[in-house]
Design goal:
Oligomer: single chain
Shape: elongated
Radius of gyration: 29 Å
Structural class: alpha+beta
Number of strands: 16
Number of helices: 15
Strand order of the largest sheet: 1-5-6-11-10-9-7-8
Largest sheet: 8 strands, mixed
């Protein structure tokens, strides 16, 4: 008797439970992935125009890099960073590693490790995933993506302005509007130290108004209190001493130089005295591009000068400035504003009613692809090759401009029929397969 194989097929109730992605870490599938590819293409074009060169750093770094670079008393290190003790090697040694919560520290670490500044300053850019353990919400995910630009070794306000102009050009290139620029100056550490003393004294007089987060930061990171979103603290924050009053002539000259370049290029901006950074290595220029269309998560690009970070991470002191843009927020804004993003669709769809003709069909399609035509070929599925009617339905839903019909009659004549799918007034045309190089380029779209 034949063996009973029914037990080899799991019943619906015995199948393993479906696995889902980690909360806050999202898949990007077609057709949504086409929007990401389009945006990435815009970024690469922009960076080339400004002569910034691509930089790729590991997702995993030593935890000490972020503790030293970002600071132990920051929310990122204390609450949000994914960090863990790695497995021990045969000697019992192991590393403490972290998924990168941001990439400026990684770029700086790489620049030091590879002695990249030995022959002069560098303009660099990156794009990739970052990780923070926080509650997923609109525009904020546990795995999120950033575009970043970092200029290492440049000290003047001209490069600060260049980065702002680059971001401004990016909004124009992708069609975004309604984004405001806010700028400020943090001066130098010695100037901030004097301001810090006055700031603490001011807030100590209003302890009854401060929330628990502000009280926690009062003696460790009082500048961050200025960035609070708590409406009950608005009055006490607005009456706090302004850092600008403590800046010396050199810091003010740098800030005026930045403003002069922005003014000359007719870039609108607002000086926001509450725009700060809670990390000690930041100095002089800080800036943000913000929008009112994403609720509380309104910052789409944040940047500033961090002249002390390279030395703080262990390198020879050198000035630096950069910015980072949140990819997910930009894509959400594009949707919010109804900006059309081209779909990644084929130019032609090959209708192949007989699978036995594959050698002839694939030779013709290869020629088309080699000349830049985007081709999707119909292939047999679990239900077989499919009828002409079903193949034309798939051709239409693919978004292709043309259908290539490799029917038995055409192949007997050594031809293929090109049928327009998007223009009702156009007529179908028959072409010889030995003349693909002549008619093939006419099928390539300008998308």
């Amino acid at each position: 008797m034949p063996a009973n194989t029914s037990s080899a097929i799991p019943s619906p109730s015995s199948r393993p439970a479906k696995l889902a992605a980690v909360k806050g870490m999202n898949d990007v599938t077609p057709p949504e992935s086409a929007r990401w590819e389009w945006l990435e293409h815009k970024v690469r074009t922009l960076m080339g125009q400004y002569a910034y060169r691509n930089m790729r750093t590991p997702i995993l770094e030593h935890t000490a890099l972020f503790v030293r670079g970002i600071g132990e008393v920051t929310d990122i290190v204390e609450k949000e960073m994914y960090s863990f003790q790695d497995r021990s090697d045969k000697y019992g040694d192991n590393d403490h590693l972290a998924l990168r919560p941001e990439n400026t520290a990684g770029v700086v670490r790489a620049a030091i490790e590879h002695n990249m500044l030995y022959d002069g300053p560098k303009r660099l850019w990156y794009i990739g995933p970052m990780f923070r353990r926080e509650k997923p919400q609109r525009g904020r995910f546990r795995q999120f993506h950033q575009i970043g630009a970092e200029a290492l070794g440049f000290a003047g306000p001209d490069v600060d302005a260049e980065l702002i102009l680059m971001a401004n050009a990016f909004w124009r290139s992708i069609g975004l509007t309604g984004i405001r620029l806010e700028i400020n100056s943090l001066g130098q550490p010695s100037e901030r130290a004097k301001h810090r003393q006055e700031l603490i004294a001011h807030f100590e007089q209003h302890l009854d108004v401060l929330d628990e987060d502000a009280k926690r930061r009062l003696h460790t990171n009082p500048l961050r209190i200025l960035d609070t979103k708590n409406p009950t603290m608005k009055a006490v924050v607005e009456s706090a001493p302004q850092l600008m009053s403590f800046l010396g002539e050199e810091s003010l000259a740098h800030f005026r130089g930045l403003q002069a370049i922005l003014d000359a290029n007719r870039v609108e901006y607002t000086i926001n005295h509450r725009l700060v950074r809670g990390l000690d290595y930041y100095n002089l220029s800080v800036f943000e591009f913000v929008t009112d269309r994403l609720g509380a998560q309104g910052t789409v690009c944040a940047g500033g000068r961090y002249d002390d970070l390279i030395a703080q991470v262990g390198g020879k002191p050198a000035p630096a400035v950069g910015w980072a843009i949140g990819v997910e927020r930009i894509l959400e804004l594009l949707t919010e504003q109804g900006v059309p993003v081209p779909e990644n669709v084929p130019d032609v769809y090959a209708v192949v009613p007989d699978a036995a003709t594959a050698p002839i069909v694939l030779r013709a399609l290869l020629q088309l692809r080699e000349m830049g035509v985007r081709v999707q070929m119909h292939a047999a599925g679990s239900d077989g090759q499919g009828s002409f009617k079903s193949q034309f339905k798939r051709a239409d839903s693919s978004g292709a401009t043309y259908a290539l019909i490799f029917g038995s009659d055409e192949l007997a004549r050594g031809t293929v029929t090109v049928k327009p799918l998007r223009d009702a007034t156009a007529v179908q045309v028959e072409h010889h397969l030995d003349e693909v190089s002549v008619w093939g380029p006419t099928l390539q779209s300008s998308r």
